[in-house]
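The pair is set out directly below:
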Amino acid sequence: TTTALSSARIRIGATSVGNYALFAGGGTTTNSSSQTTTVDTYTRSLTKETATTGLSVARYVDAAASLGNYAFFVGGTNGSTAVKNVDIYNDSLSKISAEDLSATATNNSGASNSSYAIFAGGGNKESEPSSRNNAYAYNASAQRATNVEALSTSRLDMGCATAGNHVLFVG
């Protein structure tokens, strides 16, 4: 079955929560010169819906991960500006308030283990290269953790996966 997004998009954040797959933001042209706040959702029967509240800022290359009853969309780029926005949706597709990152993060990566949704790397390529090793974690109550160890080296566009209770960032 093929069901199209509400509009063609590239470099989109994607994750799932509850019975929904969520696709948030993205560039609306082939060179990402325009971004969207739209969050398209699909039920397990592949019925397309749109979340009633979009992302807080239009962006693409936002990292996404899920933990428990929450889907997280973190960082990204609006135009040529890296952002530090965090948008969290619960399993009823309601957006909840979230603490933004302390630094911008674009081209960052995210994954989750049984305790945290973890986002790392990225940063503003031009003016904040030191932020490329930042790491942020959110717990199952969607609260940002404060004791997160930074990456060992600065990274952009990483691969990430979970093995057991470890989140691995590579590349």
